[in-house]
Automatic annotation (TrEMBL):
GO terms for biological process: cell division; G1/S transition of mitotic cell cycle. It holds the Pfam family Cyclin_N. It comes from Solanum lycopersicum (Tomato). The gene is LOC104647239. This is Cyclin N-terminal domain-containing protein. Keywords: Cell cycle, Cell division. GO terms for cellular component: cyclin-dependent protein kinase holoenzyme complex; cytoplasm; nucleus.
Amino acid sequence: MAEDWGDIFKNLQMSANEEAIFKGDYEREFVHKQIFAEEFEDIGEDNEDYIENMLKEEEKIAIAGLTNILPLRTLSLPWLLEARRTAIYNIVYIGGCNGVRKITVYTAMIYVDRYLSSVPKKPISPIAKLLAISCLYLACEQFEEYECQISTSNYIGSIMSMKYNIITQFKWIVTFVTPIQFVKYFLSRFCRDLSRKLYAKSITVEIIMSTIGDVRLMSVSAFVVGAAATLLASNSNILTHEMIKDEINALPKKWLIPIDEVCSCYDRLLETNMHRLDIS
């Protein structure tokens, strides 16, 4: 059975919180603030203007040629999967042990996948760990409200050099959209049972985090993954494709939502997350 990197990260994050009581004041304060932010602060907004801005960001990334084509590249370059596995291991373990947020780890994996989608065909497995740490460092700069001191001071020169390489490869675009940023809006539309809302919010993010090990799902648009994950967590019953289509068709038509992709993503997420769902 493939590793559920989302669960692994959550357990490491919880361990970091427990171990923080034995650390210094700074480390303890940082981890506790992170846990509070993770549990109680909403990411994103629940209005249509916000969603349209996120969709424009996704479009800008596509126009810049920074889409995730890793599933296609791995067919002819299988060493990319080894490099990715090394990267995800280091991002999850270093991020979890340092108490960073889920959106930070998810964004770091977006950086890894987009970088591996465009690097030359020469194997980079020997520097996959450095790539992982540099992507995590860059993601921390985007999403960590409090300064995160990742224990990499001995390699800071190499990390800064790799980070510059990554940013250059991305044409200085570092704002990538994640499914987590759509959750607040989709909960406002799909979760009609108010008693289920807190559960649905937590489980939706867990479902999204479970995708970081799946190369195919990580190449699906953030909007689609966010919609499918929220639909799955918001309902106590498994939805048919017709029911999913009804929910999506109630959203603004101008968004041109690929309903078949949402249905396919929903099925895949249901298959891989049955163990965590309160659903029948």
